């Protein structure tokens, strides 16, 4: 790409990404940010944390978060010109310095370019948390962080989606919102570290203000999260673009008088009230000491050129008014999939990208990573005659009188594909309800589209029509009638088709749009990126479909062939006369051509629903789960502090020196009176504490929360301990053993030593305590064990690929799956088990569907994790839990830890009564590839392999006396 003034910001974004990626990988970034930021980044992106969660930020979201934080906090950039000076100094001469000299660019300002459907709202949430927590925990305000936030949407739909994200979804019936359903609450394990959850959720709940509440009128606590659309600013300025002061009543009256009747003159009471009250809101936001403004769909903030003069839109004028008194205490983050203006027309049209783009996570990248649907331009057989047919609606004297033949053919083609998808998708998963979106440019056309679709066999309930004006606005009364129905379409079979006139360009965030029919009133493109973007969000997110989706992406985007399925494919039914509009998409690997009536492998390829066999009962097995009653008691076992390792990284005297030489200051606050009585700053990157007793409680909280989270994920109780007993053990460990000699935390301020040097002492304590509590669980006994046996047959249907599965006899399902990549060992082992006379039954455990079949273990880094074995096999005397591993992974450290946890779990299982363990002894086999093929080729059976591959505690731990 040739770099010029129109695209130089894309080069800035790419270079910044390279710099940030290196700083994150080598750890230098963590050393240059605040302890709060370091804690958040470790929590969000640290490998250990990510392995614990099933839900994580994807690469594009991580890239956006890191880039903004790196510029703002590490490089301390204060203007857009600063971005270039610090990242691309060689390109500074190519900048438009006149443009960057404008006040709107002389602030900390960042544009995040993320493809539609890739989760930019989650990036907003993360950046808000980063600013909020740093501001709340700063010893002295630095001006770099704020607890005041303004989130601005371009229109009604995006605004409503933001209210869902921040305030929660609407409760049926009473018109109120359920806060517990907002993004922060539903995904708190991803967004918010445990120690900050109460603080963060309380801040959000108490400080959210919508435009309906009245920004500046609703009383909030120690900050504000204001949600509005840009219309907040619309009445702030007169027709000449001059700001009207809300406090200058004579000026307003003079501007409005002489009053004339009629709304056309803008003199109705609603307009007057809007101008006066709107000023109150803008004045309030301008009066705040600092603020972070987030603009969603920020491509609407652009300059207009009228009569040769460049003018700002009202949205930007409002932001200028808020920013003006604040200087660099005003921070702006703009989000858009298309952050550019266009200059020229036709072949001479040029995209001029916003100059402050710091992240470029584009659509081709998102498609190749499988984060959005793959785009298909439909060239079905019935469209071949369209070039000879008109594409404009029939008109008489300018009024639409009906659809043309070309439009009817396109709609029929779309319905044909939709009906095919409905039949095939439902066979695999009855919850999948594909939808078609028809985009019209003219409100006169949409009623004829609805009539045509009903004439083609659809019911009235199957078609939802939403009309809007040229700006994409819709009458509020009409909007309220369709809002719930529209945003709930993923879960219901009807409506099947949505007919829209511009209204659904942005914010229509549903997953099941699979077919789009763009009907045109002229030969001009109708906002391709926004139209396509409405259908890009993934519909098939379950992991069992990942392999077939990967193969299809390669077929379409790399090999330029037909897809084998329509799983997460977005079909555009386009008139051939307009295929030129898609040339850039096709040339850049953004789209493929669908040249057949159906995909080469059908809509769903070889994905199958596999059910239970008629005779499944004789092959069924159960996974035992030991339940602990609520009144159960631990036996007298205690944490043995003599088994906890000493801290040896630094002598205690050196840690005291760190406190003295690093110049740390501390601030303490008494909770009830809010009286500051001392100064200290906690530089531990795990958490902060204001007293030794609070420190002990937070240690306990962190460790037990980790355990409890895994318990919830597994669905069964895992651990019960007495908090006071554990706190006592922590205290004794710190006082008597941690430093290898007696330690008095109340000797002066010695307890703060535990927080010194980036929290390495705290990390050591947490790691040792986690191991001790996990071991304590294994040594406990209950008054009476209660065992819940979960039969594998409770999962009656599995979804798998026919090409990656095989029909076998000794299992409960009609087919047994194996991995599509590197699954040769498992495929061969399944055939071996099915033929072995000593095997009564076996089952391949599905990690995603047999979620109850888990074993918890402590990883090498001290974090709790979940392990899913590969197989369970039943013989006459034994039940074998089997893990198949490539020979190169047999000695992996975490594999060893899984082995140890599994053996300890099996020890508890074998201690149960015989009926609770299928009347057999349980054993663990670790089957390496070389070992299996060596034994199998020699005619061995499973019992022979078990003798060789059985894992024992003495082997895993190195203790010959441990069994």
Automatic annotation (TrEMBL):
**Which Gene Ontology terms of cellular component type are present?**
cytosol
Protein's UniProt keywords contain Nuclease:
yes
Q: Keywords in UniProt for this one?
A: Endonuclease, Hydrolase, Nuclease
Domain Helicase C-terminal stretches: 420-589
GO MF, one example: endonuclease activity
Is Iron-sulfur a UniProt keyword of this protein?
no
Q: Where is the signal peptide?
A: none
Pfam families (alphabetical): ResIII
The source's domain of life comes to Bacteria
InterPro entries named among the record's database cross-references: Helicase/UvrB_N, Helicase_C-like, Helicase_Restrict-Modif_Enz, P-loop_NTPase
Protein name (database record): Restriction endonuclease subunit R
Q: Which organism is it from?
A: Sodaliphilus pleomorphus
């Amino acid at each position: 790409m040739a770099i010029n003034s129109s695209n130089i910001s894309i080069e800035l974004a790419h270079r910044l990404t390279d710099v940030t990626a290196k700083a994150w990988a080598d750890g230098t970034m963590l050393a240059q940010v605040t302890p709060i930021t370091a804690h958040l980044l470790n929590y969000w992106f640290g490998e250990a944390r990510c392995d614990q969660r099933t839900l994580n930020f994807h690469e594009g979201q991580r890239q956006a978060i890191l880039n903004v934080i790196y510029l703002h906090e590490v490089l301390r950039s204060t203007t857009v010109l600063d971005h270039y000076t610090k990242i691309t100094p060689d390109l500074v001469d190519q900048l438009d310095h006149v443009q960057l000299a404008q006040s709107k660019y002389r602030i900390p300002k960042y544009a995040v370019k993320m493809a539609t459907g890739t989760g930019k709202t989650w990036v907003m949430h993360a950046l808000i948390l980063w600013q909020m927590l740093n501001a709340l925990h700063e010893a002295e305000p630095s001006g770099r962080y704020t607890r005041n936030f303004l989130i601005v949407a371009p229109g009604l739909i995006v605004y409503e989606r933001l209210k869902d994200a921040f305030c929660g979804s609407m409760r049926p019936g009473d018109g109120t919102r359920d806060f517990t359903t907002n993004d922060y609450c539903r995904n708190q394990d991803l967004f918010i570290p445990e120690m900050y959850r109460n603080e963060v959720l309380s801040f959000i709940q108490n400080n959210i203000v919508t435009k309906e509440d009245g920004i500046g009128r609703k009383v909030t606590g120690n900050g504000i999260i204001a949600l509005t659309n840009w219309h907040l600013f619309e009445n702030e300025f007169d027709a000449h673009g001059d700001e009207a002061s809300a406090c200058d009543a004579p000026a307003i009256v003079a501007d409005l008088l002489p009053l004339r009747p009629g709304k056309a003159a803008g003199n109705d009471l609603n307009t007057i009230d809007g101008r006066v009250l709107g000023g109150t809101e803008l004045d309030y936001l301008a009066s705040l000491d600092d603020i972070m403004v987030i603009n969603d769909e920020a491509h609407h903030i652009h300059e207009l050129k009228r009569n040769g003069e460049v003018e700002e839109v009202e949205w930007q004028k409002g932001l200028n008014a808020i920013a003006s008194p604040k200087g660099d205490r005003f921070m702006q983050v703009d989000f858009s999939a298309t952050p550019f203006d266009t200059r020229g027309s036709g072949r001479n049209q040029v995209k001029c990208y916003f100059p402050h783009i710091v992240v470029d996570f584009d659509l081709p990248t998102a498609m190749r990573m499988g984060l959005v649907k793959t785009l298909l331009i439909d060239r079905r057989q019935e469209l071949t005659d369209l070039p000879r047919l008109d594409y404009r609606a029939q008109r008489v004297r300018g009024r639409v009188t009906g659809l043309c033949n070309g439009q009817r053919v396109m709609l029929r083609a779309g319905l044909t594909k939709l009906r095919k998808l409905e039949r095939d998708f439902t066979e695999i998963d009855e919850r999948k309800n594909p939808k078609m979106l028809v985009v019209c440019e003219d409100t006169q056309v949409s009623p004829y589209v609805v009539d045509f679709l009903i004439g083609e066999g659809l019911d009235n309930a199957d078609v939802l029509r939403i009309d809007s004006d040229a700006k994409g606005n819709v009458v509020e009364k009409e909007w309220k009638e369709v809002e719930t129905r529209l945003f709930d379409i993923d879960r219901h079979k009807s409506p099947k088709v949505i007919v829209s006139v511009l209204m659904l360009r942005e914010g229509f965030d549903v997953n099941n749009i699979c077919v789009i029919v763009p009907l045109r009133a002229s030969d001009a493109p109708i906002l391709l990126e926004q139209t396509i973007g409405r259908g890009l969000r993934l519909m098939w997110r379950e992991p069992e479909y990942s392999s077939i989706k990967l193969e299809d992406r390669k077929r379409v985007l790399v090999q330029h062939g037909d897809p084998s399925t329509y799983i997460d494919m977005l079909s555009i039914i386009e008139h051939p006369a307009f295929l030129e509009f898609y040339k850039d998409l096709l040339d850049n690997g953004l789209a493929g051509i669908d040249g057949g009536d159906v995909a080469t492998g059908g809509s769903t390829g070889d994905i199958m629903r596999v059910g239970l066999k008629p005779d499944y009962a004789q092959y069924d097995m159960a996974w035992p789960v030991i339940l602990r009653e609520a009144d159960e008691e631990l036996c007298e076992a205690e944490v043995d502090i003599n088994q906890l390792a000493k801290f040896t990284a630094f002598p205690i005297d050196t840690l005291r020196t760190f406190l003295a030489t690093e110049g740390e200051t501390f601030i303490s606050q008494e909770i009830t009176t809010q009286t500051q009585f001392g100064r200290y700053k906690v530089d531990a990157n795990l958490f902060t504490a204001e007293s030794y007793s609070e420190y002990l409680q937070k240690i306990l909280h962190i460790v037990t929360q980790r355990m409890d989270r895994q318990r919830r994920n597994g669905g069964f109780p895992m651990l019960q301990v007495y908090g006071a007993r554990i706190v006592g053990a922590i205290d004794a460990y710190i006082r008597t053993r941690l430093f290898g000699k007696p330690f008095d935390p109340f000797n002066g301020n010695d307890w703060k030593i535990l927080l010194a040097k980036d929290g390495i002492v705290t990390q050591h304590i947490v790691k040792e305590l986690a191991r001790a509590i996990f071991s304590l669980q294994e040594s406990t006994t209950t008054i009476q064990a209660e065992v819940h046996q979960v039969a594998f047959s409770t999962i009656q249907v599995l979804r798998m690929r026919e090409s990656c599965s095989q029909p076998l006899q000794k299992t409960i399902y009609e087919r047994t799956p194996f991995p599509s990549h590197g699954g040769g060992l498992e495929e061969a082992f399944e055939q071996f088990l099915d033929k072995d006379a000593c095997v009564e039954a076996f089952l391949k455990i599905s990690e995603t569907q047999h979620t109850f079949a888990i074993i918890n273990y402590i990883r090498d880094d001290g974090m709790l994790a979940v392990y899913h074995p590969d197989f369970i096999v039943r013989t006459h005397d034994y039940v074998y839990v089997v893990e198949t591993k490539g020979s190169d992974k047999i000695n992996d450290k975490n594999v060893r830890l899984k082995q140890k946890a599994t053996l300890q779990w099996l020890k508890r299982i074998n201690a149960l009564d015989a009926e609770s363990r299928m009347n057999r002894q349980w054993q663990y086999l670790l089957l390496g590839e070389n070992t299996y093929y060596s034994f199998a080729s020699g005619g061995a059976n499973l019992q022979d392999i078990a003798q060789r591959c059985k894992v024992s505690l003495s082997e895993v731990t190195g203790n010959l006396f441990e069994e």
